[in-house]
Amino acid sequence: MNRGEIVVVTGFGPFRQFLVNPSWKAAQRLKLVGLGERTDVYVKEVPVSYVKTQQIIPELWQTLTPKLAVHLGVARASNVVILEQTGKNSGYSDKDVRGFCPESHCCVEGGPEKLDSVINMRAISREFKQAGKDVIYSRDAGRYLCDFAYYCSLYHGQRRAALIHVPSSGSLTSADRLVPLLQTLIQTMLDQLEDLSERG
Predict the structure, then answer these.
(1) What is the per-residue pLDDT across 39-69, written as a single tens digit (0 to 9) for each?
(2) What CATH number does the domain located at 5-199 have?
(3) Catalytic residues, which ones?
């Protein structure tokens, strides 16, 4: 790995009962603890807004050209960490915090219906589960801002993106437990990317 590769970590802004979104708190903590000396962590708060998300995500890819973008979101009523494999382009009908919804109900007009991350989330979730960690795999990110941001990022970043849903209940809501787990998960993803580029 070259020195100083960039990993972008985003969290979402205030949303319903979350005056400070747990995903943004986790992103800020990740910036503090870092991802090892050869990786620069760049964090960005993304408002729960379709228009802002459509502006911010492509901009991050264009200006920073990160090795990986990791988007953190909150899974309501979940007490485990969920690794999302797939971003969906259409079917967005729920209004954002500004009461707005895209007229086309999609992220990128003319884009593929689904995009999968280059990272094998199933393999990573299996590995962590075997190690006794509360990590599960999903192919449905929920057709709201998390899914929307994920698809935009997969589209603009040659699919080098990850979406991790953090829990809203249970013991992993404690940053002291959540952040080291996220740190190890993201390092595992980076290792997988490294293997892919060596093979590819």
Answers:
(1) 999 999 999 999 999 999 999 999 999 999 9
(2) 3.40.630.20
(3) 84, 146, 165
